[in-house]
Amino acid sequence: MAWWSDLVESEPEFAARVRARFQVRKHGTMATLRRDGSPRISGTEVDFAADGQLRLGSMAGALKALDLRRDPRVALHCPTEDTPEDDPGSWAGDAKIAGVAHEEPPAEDGSHRFRVELTEVVLTRVGDPPDHLVIESWHPGRGLHRRERR
């Protein structure tokens, strides 16, 4: 099992850049699986908690929470930012996290809370010079890998 704290410990600079992409705005995107196996996309807030856990929450009875109870696989995408057309190299990047959601005891208001076990963390950005993409990915047990795509 790998948690956010494990990534921070093994690759602190990479983890900081991923976290920064998720914190550029309040709401990111979450993908879950519906009962029939088709994808569901939902807005979500990602909490990088002080105890080293990455957590998600939702209102009581929300479909995304019911999806996670049934099938805990989850994918998260950071909030997006537009890139200035005249400066594509200024794009700060795009972060994605895949994992398994573990339900925690509900909050006092009955809302759902999940902590995410990491299976993959990816950061994609424009390289320097801005004629290629740089894709960095981290997987538990394999560590951080970097590749370029032209």
UniProtKB/TrEMBL annotation:
Domain of life, source organism: Bacteria
Species of the source: Micromonospora kangleipakensis
GO cellular component, as recorded: cytosol
Domain spans labelled Pyridoxamine 5'-phosphate oxidase N-terminal: 17-97
MF annotations from Gene Ontology: coenzyme F420 binding; oxidoreductase activity, acting on the CH-CH group of donors
Compositional bias segments (type: Basic and acidic residues): 101-113
UniProt keyword annotations, A-Z: Oxidoreductase
InterPro entries: F420H2_bilvrd_red/Heme_oxyg, Pyridox_Oxase_N, Split_barrel_FMN-bd
Name of the protein in question: Pyridoxamine 5'-phosphate oxidase N-terminal domain-containing protein
PANTHER family, A to Z: HEME OXYGENASE HI_0854-RELATED
Disordered: region residues: 77-113
Alphabetical list of Gene3D superfamilies matching this protein: Electron Transport, Fmn-binding Protein, Chain A (2.30.110.10)
